[in-house]
From TrEMBL:
One of its GO terms (biological process) is endoplasmic reticulum to Golgi vesicle-mediated transport. The gene is Ykt6b. The keyword Protein transport applies. This is YKT6B protein. It comes from Phainopepla nitens. Keywords: Lipoprotein, Membrane, Methylation, Palmitate, Prenylation, Protein transport, Transport.
Amino acid sequence: MRLYSLSVLYKGDPKVHLLKAAYDVSTFNFFQRSSVQEFMTFTSQLIAERSALGTRASVKEQEYLCHVYVRSDGLAGVVIADTEYPQRVCFTLLDKVLDEFSRQVSKMEWPSGSPATISYSALDGYLSKYQVQTPGT
């Protein structure tokens, strides 16, 4: 059971844009990592764009499950995990991250923010904390 990506996005008008993200692509071949990361970024934005405000959903994309939560204020979170990872845990993580993000990052920064301009460093910690280690890994 693995988490591969944790993203915070803003569903503004007219597009969704990435505010901050963390990735764990260590299980992929070195030469595939950047394209896998691009795929996860693109998929996260697409799923957030297609989800209505105030909704949660889980979408299967290739061999991954993408869990999305779009709050009514436009802040969205996406977790990309393998199909064995518990859905309930993913949504608990998204709730926690979006609540903390909205407390630490001013709402005024969301519409124009980008990963380079938003100062929120907790995503990598959450991604590793919520990784489920299987015996022998």
